[in-house]
Amino acid sequence: MRRLNPSLVVGGLIVAIIVLTALVSFIWTPYDATLVDPAVRLAKPSWSHWFGTDKFGRDVLSQIMVGSRTTLFVGLVAVGVAAVIGVPLGILAAMSRRWSSEVIMRANDLLLAFPALLLAIMFGAVFGASTLTAMVAIGIATVPSFARVIRSGALQVMRTEYVLAARAAGRQPLPIAVRHVLPNVTSLITVQASVSFAIAVLAEAALSFLGYGTPPPTPSWGRMLQESQEFLFSAPRLAVFPGLAIAIAVLGFNLLGDGLRDRFDPKLEDRR
Amino acid sequence: MVLRLIERTAVLLVSLAVSSVLVFAFMAVLPGDPARVALGVNASDEAVAELRRQFGLDRSLSTQYFDWLGGLLQGDFGTSYVSKAAIGPQIFDRFQVTLWLVVVAMVVALVIAAPAGTVMAARHRRLSGLALSALSQVGVAVPAFLAGILLIMLFAVKLGWLPANGWTPPAEDPGMFLRQLILPALSLGLVQGAVLTRYVRSAVLDVLREDYLRTARAKGLRPFPALWRHGLRNAAVPVVTVLGLQLATLLIGAVVVERVFVIPGLGSLLLDGVSNRDLLLVQDVVMVLVIAVLVVNFLVDLLYVALDPRLRVGSR
Amino acid sequence: MKSYPTRAVALAAAGLLALTACSAGSGSSSNSSPGADQALSIGLVAEPASLDFTTTDGAAIPQALLGNVYNGLVKQDETGKIVPDLAKSWTVSPDRKLYTFTLVDNAKFTNGAAFTSADAVFSIDRVKKNWTTSLKAAMDVVQTAKAVSPTELQVTLSKPSNDWLFRMTTRIGAMFSQTGVDKLATDPVGTGPYKFGTWKRGDSIVLQRNDDYWGTKPFFNQVTLKYFKDPTALNNALLTGTINVIGTVQAPEALSQFTSNDKYQVIEGTTNGEVLLSFNNSQPVFKDIRVRQAIRQAIDHKALLDTCFAGRGKLIGSMVPPTDPWYEDLTSVAPYDQAKAKAALQAAGATGKTLRLRLPTLPYATSCGQVVKSQLEQVGLKVTIDQLEFPAAWLTTVLKNADYDMSIIAHVEPRDLGAVFNAKYYTRYDDPTLQGLLAAADAGDEATQVSEMKKAARRISEQAAADWLFLLPNLVVADKNLTGLPQNAITESFDLSRLARS
Fold first, then answer.
1. Which of A158, A219, C260, C443 yields a CA-CA distance of 20 to 30 A from C85?
2. C-alpha–C-alpha distance, residues C383 and C377, integer Å
3. Is B251 in Cβ contact with A121 (below 8 Å)?
4. How far apart are CA B259 and CA B271, in angstroms?
5. Cα torsion for A141, A145, A151, A156, to the nearest 10°?
6. Hey, which residues does B24 pair with through a beta bridge?
């Protein structure tokens, strides 16, 4: 019985399109996304510029395509950081003695008090606003949710017969963690990664809007949205394209996450 | 139960202490001399050194930390390096503003999410449920500031029904206060509502599958009253937990909405402080935010226990 | 033991949600209501960090307070001429070192004290003794200030200086009360047509009409200066009536919604704000004049202005705005010529060199930076952009440490040619010829001043000490029925006293 649900299909499709766009942008974009051409500035969508041009005369479609790279990059690094720190943390918390497990989870909760935006603003102020600082900050802020989810999952795995048997046989915790726990929580990791990706995209957009995200001239959907504000009256289309791009990307990752969750285990609780 | 309360309180206090160290340490690392920024571009080195002495920046880090902590515990937030004004009243004023915004946004979110999520769960296999689900997905995907910009374009600029930005305290002009609160609270609340809806749906779905509900139905209760009487209490538990978790996100997420709607809240105070290297101000604001979140989570924890009797009995 | 602030905040939050006590946030303005009390609300962008411009730099403070709360001995009129303010008249000795001012006798400070020459002496001495901003250097040429009688003031300079009287029209000439300087950062005391009312940080400053003002009383009895960080919010505020004037339009692209609307008037004049593409002249790559000139000629200034400031603003060829007496149009000194630029770079061996363009996080700088990068890359240079947070990071890195190759910033102080182009400032421009011209201009008579300053302006242009991208326009949008708004912004203050509603 196949468990292909609509969320998985639609989400997967959207994510695939975005990844494809990003890959294609390395080889080809209609125009150089950073080429300033004052002669054609603020052009309406036409055959030569499908999405029109911005105030510098740069092709919007090219910018959206290259911007997808930034979006994916941010998501990847943020989720990567969160997973690399959060997964071991969660497994450790599940496998340790009650007291140390408690300490780890409390520290985890403490981190929750520092939301992504706050960390990113502060990192940006210290290290200079850049994509990297934004990604690391968002990543760190996402650690708690990973840790929590992985911990519950790991706890469940610990109760399975395999693990109980392994522990009874006196196996060391580290091999147990690697050989039994980790493979069984990968589905959880995938789901959480997908969902966190969506959050990272939103966070990057908000940061760019505030001025703490990707600096120019590297195209970024969030910054395009911020730059479009000036033109809300005269050229609202400049807000539509990046806005849609962000919304669709977030939608895609969320749907993918939901679909994966339903597929792996429909009874799996939502424990963000 | 009492043991748990003591334990939780202890955890709260330790968390507060650790956060204060983290926040202080972070601010100490920030490059950019606050004295130089306060004095401006071409101030002489002696003037800068003198100001550093005045601010107490030339003392050891641990002295500065304990001084700051001591001040906080007595309610003294210090004086801003840049504006020379007391920080406490500023934070107090701004906190109220952000609080109004966040609380009303939460209410809006709940008002949307509770019925919508329940309906979605009850009809989750039917078309209406799926449609609502799709709608909520879109709602989640829209950033709050985009929602704000669009709302301003429509309701303020095009239709002129509501003011585009600004803030009036409720005491001064309740009518204007309400009118200025609507759009920003909606921007935050709609998006938050979409997020919450999915949690409600998930929680209600779980409840629907539970045995006790089937028992209730078997006993003759109609679906909705059954859901209401037995399900809601249990569904409320994870939702309440999420609300608490979301508070942190909302408090700082409000900063973008504050920027778009020009609301003098805590978020914009923070951004100003960072931009002006008003170190002490930033330290205090971050600490206040962290305290607020930790305290709320603490209260949510207690509420969790109160709601779910299973947690009260015996060990964890 | 719970900590007080936590409890206080929690309680307050709970309590104040139900009750309402103190006023937080802004007060909205009331628009024209018939009768004696008229209020005005002006939207501005950079909020002052404090109200004390004697220790804090920045244009925002004098913009709000100079001329409105504080008077000087002299001020500038609409055409830039120096006219009487607190000094009814003055004479200059033949050796041009002694200035004798006759002061008005009916001016009072808002703390009740009368304005006398003793206050003038106090204020002048205070600049030298207590001010910490760099602008205080303009008062160094004063040897002594003497109060001959309560209405007669004598100021002796150590050498003749044309510049000094002009500087007295700026913030260093503000007259303070001997008994009114203890709380300058939060409670300014002056003799001006308005007195300081309240300041809600992050929101607005409210000024009240000074009913004891010694001069012509202004029309509006209350003026609110509201500060916006977001240009769109600023525009929206005017559209929805929250403010009556946009004092400085930051998003010129959006002007079209006002020019096509006959409820509003749009004023476009000039300012003192030269947007500079500054070169770090101490960097080896800039030592060669061919490289500097090539960069100037590689930029299509008209296209740049169109792209990054909607074509509003004036193209200039040096550091002098049209409102200064020695202005000449020097835009032809380095005309746009890509081919020439490419050739010059090749001759200098600079093709392919990388330049760091370090920009402050200001919208016009970000915009213009991208155009500059693109244009310079077309002639064979490589440009890397990085953004430094403004003010903190940019001030430290670029201004103080001169750790940059090029940057973009608007210099808005009046007559700042000498202040910007010297060896100590971040431009690191060391030119004895220029110093000689500036000294001669200051020491000579009026005619000499004009001719020498013209030469100085031409010198820095021909030497390509920097590139001048454009002059910021004075863009003001206001309700149609408002009168008295200045066409050009030539002083440091936003003059409220001439405003009225018809």
1. C443
2. 7
3. no
4. 10
5. -170
6. none
Cα–Cα distance for residue pair C441/C93, rounded to 1 Å: 18
Residues 292-331 of C with CB under 8 A from A: 300, 303-304, 306-308
Note the pLDDT of residue A182.
81
Give B75 to chain A, closest Cα distance, Å: 21
| CB-based burial label for A99 (10 Å; 0-12, 13-18, 19+) | exposed
Strand partners, C385: C357
Six-digit token string for C143: 């040897």
Of A248, A249, A270, the CB nearest to B202: A270
Q: Which of C129, C133, C228 to mutate to test the interface with B (most CBs of B within 10 A)?
A: C133
Contact between A219 and A66 under an 8 Å Cβ cutoff? The reply is: yes
Show which of residues 157-186 on chain C sit within 8 Å of chain B, judged by CB atoms: 185-186
Q: Is A195 exposed, middle or buried (0-12, 13-18, 19+ CB in 10 A)?
A: buried
Residue C267's beta-bridge partner residues?
C476
For residue A60, how far is the Cα from the chain centroid?
A: 23
Contact A38 C300 (CB under 8 A): yes
> pTM of the predicted model, to two decimals?
0.78
Q: Which residues in chain B are closer than 8 Å to C202, comparing Cβ atoms?
A: 90, 94, 264, 268-269, 272
pLDDT digits (tens, 9 = 90+) for C28-87: 344 444 346 789 999 998 888 789 888 877 788 999 999 999 999 999 988 888 999 999
pLDDT digits (tens, 9 = 90+) for C224-250: 999 887 777 788 788 878 899 999 887
The alpha helices in C248-407, defined as continuous H runs, are 256-259, 289-298, 301-309, 338-348, 363-378, 392-394
Nearest C-alpha neighbor of B181 from the set B93, B270, B105, B92: B105
The model's pLDDT over B73-120, given as tens digits with 9 standing for 90+, comes to 888 888 887 777 788 888 888 888 898 999 999 999 988 888 888 888
Q: In B, which residues are within 8 Å of A6 by CB distance?
A: 130
Question: Cα Rg for chain A, rounded, in angstroms?
Answer: 22
Q: C271-474, superfamily in CATH?
A: Dipeptide-binding Protein; Domain 3 (3.10.105.10)
Give A161-220 pLDDT, tens digit per residue.
Answer: 777 887 778 777 777 777 777 887 888 888 889 888 988 888 888 888 887 777 777 888
User: Which amino acid, one-letter code, is at C110?
Assistant: T
Domain limits, chain C: 2-189+480-501, 271-474
**Which CATH fold topology does C2-189+480-501 show?**
Dipeptide-binding Protein; domain 1 (3.90.76)
Q: Return the residue of B nearest to A117 by Cα.
A: B252
β-pair partners for B231? none
Q: Which residue has the tokens 């766009």?
A: A21
C-alpha A143/C-alpha C455 separation (Å) is 64
ipTM: 0.76
Whether C377 contacts chain A with CB within 8 A: no
Q: List chains adjacent to chain C, taking adjacency as at least 3 C-beta pairs closer than 8 Å.
A: A, B
Rounded to the nearest 10 degrees, what angle do helices B232-261 and C231-239 cross at?
Answer: 90
Residue A267 pLDDT class (50, 70, 90 cuts): low
d(CA A261, CA A192): 9
